[in-house]
């Protein structure tokens, strides 16, 4: 796959904070268009904090992060929704709107992100539901779906605006291995169509079965499999 | 209902917006505000009637001629402070003979057995508009009338008037203070009800933020819903009060005399508007608060 020279995510000398405590320091890495990158690290190592910083859920003040042409340093609150529209975010706990159906969840995102034409909304809804294999589940409420199906809805939601990158925070963490594999295959399909994926995971089976670039957080630093060789396992002291 | 359905229904209800509770609470709060407004309006009308029942007596000279009396009457009828009931100015002339009969009736002594002449003067009884019923205005009115030729004296029960006005003032202050406390309590009740209802939606608000919805887009449906609930609750409270008022007019003797239809209708029509405004401000405040909270703060 050919990548353009400009990365989708560019991180330089960044310090990632959680509750005003630095959890990751001197971070430097890039993610290019169409790349598939795993983010691994022990529980509490700062994986989620890094992803939350990338979608501006945590404040970022030290260093430089550029994601889909948005500079995160001191980003204004009013600009955050527009950043989030350009990236797709997949959450471990789904973050669906449980008071409305699957279709209404997706339509909400479309309307919230400026879709006006009802015909286009319907057509896009059908597209994304078909892409995640939920064509017949549009009228179901989220609680009527299995965990795997709910995660598929989240993926569909993330795909609506054709983002350049999907940020996935342990997307299979709550799913059994079989369903987790289905979600992983879905990610691979999406990646094949050109969308970059940055996925935090604890599932080492994926790393072996679907090898890709790995960023590993260890002792507050980041190791990059594209630059150095390291073990994917962790030592718990 | 089969047992298999129960868990899904329970799950569906979790975190859902408590429509009925919110509507009931807002309706009750607005009902209390409306009820007190009606009590206040009727108390004002009662004070007005009490003040308008105060009489000012204009005693005429014994030697006054009929044309001079008529001229005084004409002047009095034209005064702005004279109360008009059904467009009729409340100026009543009592001639000396009638005055004598009233005196004898009130005091029981028939002085005509001792005196040959009638010592009682003819007089006018004036009823004054309530705006002029304070001691200072009455004193000015009396002084103005006394300047006319043919007037012996003007008198009114100053002590009674002072007491009436003082009591009305005390009651007005008490009612006003109570109204302010009640209004604040009701507004706080509505505000807290909406705040609590939106508390159950705080994670929904966060989810909306995470998928790229702007602040305004998220706020809009919550605000519209709270406004509509306030509007409907106000209309419902107003309708209940209107029914209650008509029932009270039918059942409580003399209450209909205090009927201030226009003011009462205005007060009842304000309830839906007040409900909508309180709903708007409360929901705006609550949603903005949750929009600005971090995940840790939301938990």
SSE topology sketch:
The complex is a heterodimer of chains A (237) and B (299).
Chain A lengths: L8 E10 L2 E11 L4 E6 L5 H8 L7 E6 L2 E2 L8 H7 E4 L11 H11 L5 H14 L15 H13 L5 E5 L7 H16 L3 E5 L3 H6 L3 E6 L2 E4 L13
Parallel strand pairs in A: 3-8, 3-9, 6-7, 7-8
Antiparallel strand pairs in A: 1-2, 1-4, 4-5, 9-10
Chain B lengths: L4 H9 L5 H34 L2 E6 L5 H12 L6 E2 L2 E2 L1 E4 L1 H12 L15 E5 L7 H12 L4 E5 L2 H42 L2 H9 L4 H37 L9 H31 L3 H4 L1
Antiparallel strand pairs in B: 1-5, 1-6, 2-3, 4-5
Describe the protein in words:
The complex is a heterodimer of chains A (237) and B (299). Chain A has 2 domains: 1-86 and 163-237, 3-Layer(aba) Sandwich (Rossmann fold), CATH 3.40.50.300; 99-161, no CATH class. Chain A is 32% helix and 25% strand. With 237 residues, chain A is of the alpha/beta class. Chain A has helices at residues 47-54, 80-86, 102-112, 118-131, 147-159, 177-192, 204-209, and strands at 9-18, 21-31, 36-41, 62-67, 70-71, 87-90, 165-169, 196-200, 213-218, 221-224. In chain A, α5 runs parallel beside α6. In chain A, strands 6-7-8-3-9-10 form a 6-stranded mixed beta sheet, sandwiched between helices. Chain A contains 7 helices and 10 strands. In chain B, 68% of the residues lie in helices and 8% in strands. In chain B, α2 packs antiparallel against α6, α2 (19-52) crosses α8 and α2 packs antiparallel against α9. Chain B has a 4-stranded antiparallel beta sheet with strand order 4-5-1-6. Chain B is an alpha+beta fold and 299 residues long. The two termini of chain B are 34 Å apart. Chain B is built from 10 helices and 6 strands; from the N terminus they run ααβαβββαβαβααααα. In chain B, β2 (84-85) and β3 (88-89) form a beta hairpin. The A-B interface holds A 19, 55, 57, 77-78, 80-85, 89, 91, 95-99, 108-109, 111-113, 141, 143-144, 157, 161 and B 8, 11-12, 14-17, 201, 204, 206-215, 217-218, 294-296.
């Amino acid at each position: 796959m050919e990548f353009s020279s400009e990365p989708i995510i560019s991180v330089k000398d960044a310090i990632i904070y959680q509750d005003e405590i630095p959890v990751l320091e001197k971070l430097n890495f890039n993610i290019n268009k169409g790349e598939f990158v795993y983010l691994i690290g022990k529980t509490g190592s700062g994986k989620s904090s890094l992803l939350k910083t990338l979608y501006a859920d945590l404040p970022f003040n030290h260093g430089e992060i550029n994601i889909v042409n948005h500079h995160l340093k001191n980003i204004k609150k009013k600009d955050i929704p527009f950043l989030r529209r350009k990236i797709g975010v997949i959450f471990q706990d789904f973050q669906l709107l449980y008071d409305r159906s699957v279709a209404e969840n997706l339509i909400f995102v479309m309307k919230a992100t400026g879709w006006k034409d009802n015909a286009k909304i319907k057509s896009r809804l059908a597209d994304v539901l078909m892409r995640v294999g939920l064509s017949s589940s549009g009228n179901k409420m989220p609680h009527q779906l299995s965990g795997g199906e709910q995660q598929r809805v989240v993926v569909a939601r993330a795909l609506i605006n054709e983002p350049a990158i999907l940020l996935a925070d342990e997307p299979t963490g709550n799913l059994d291995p079989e369903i987790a594999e289905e979600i992983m295959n879905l990610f691979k399909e999406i990646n094949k169509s050109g969308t970059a994926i940055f996925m935090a995971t604890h599932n080492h089976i994926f790393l072996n079965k679907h090898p890709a670039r790995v960023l590993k957080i260890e002792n507050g630093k980041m190791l990059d499999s594209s630059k150095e060789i390291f073990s994917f396992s962790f030592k718990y002291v | 209902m089969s047992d298999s359905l129960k868990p899904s229904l329970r799950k569906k209800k979790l975190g859902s917006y408590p429509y009925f509770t919110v509507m009931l609470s807002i309706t009750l709060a607005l009902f209390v505000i409306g009820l007190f407004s009606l009590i206040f309006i009727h108390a004002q009308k009662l004070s007005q009637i009490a003040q308008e029942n105060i009489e000012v007596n204009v005693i005429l000279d014994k030697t006054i001629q009929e044309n001079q009396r008529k001229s005084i009457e004409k002047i009095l009828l034209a005064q702005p402070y004279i109360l008009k009931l059904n467009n009729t100015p409340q100026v009543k002339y009592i001639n000396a003979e009638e005055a004598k009969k009233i005196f004898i009736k009130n005091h029981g002594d028939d002085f005509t057995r001792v005196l040959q002449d009638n010592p009682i003067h003819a007089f006018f009884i004036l009823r004054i508009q309530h705006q002029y019923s304070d001691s200072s205005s009455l004193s000015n009115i009396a002084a103005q009338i006394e300047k006319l030729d043919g007037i012996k004296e003007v008198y009114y029960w100053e002590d009674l008037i002072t007491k009436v006005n003082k009591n009305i003032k005390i009651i007005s202050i008490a009612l006003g203070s109570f109204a302010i406390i009640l209004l604040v309590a009701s507004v706080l009740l509505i505000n807290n009800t909406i705040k609590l209802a939106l508390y159950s939606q705080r994670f929904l608000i966060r989810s909306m933020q995470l998928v790229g919805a702007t602040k305004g887009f998220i706020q809009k449906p919550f605000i519209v819903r709270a406004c509509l609930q306030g509007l409907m609750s106000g209309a419902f409270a107003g309708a209940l009060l209107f029914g209650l008022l008509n029932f009270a007019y039918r059942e409580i003797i003399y209450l209909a005399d205090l009927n201030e239809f226009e003011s009462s209708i205005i007060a009842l029509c304000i309830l839906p508007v007040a409900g909508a405004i309180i709903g708007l401000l409360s929901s705006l405040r609550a949603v903005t608060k949750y929009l600005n909270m971090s995940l840790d703060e939301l938990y």
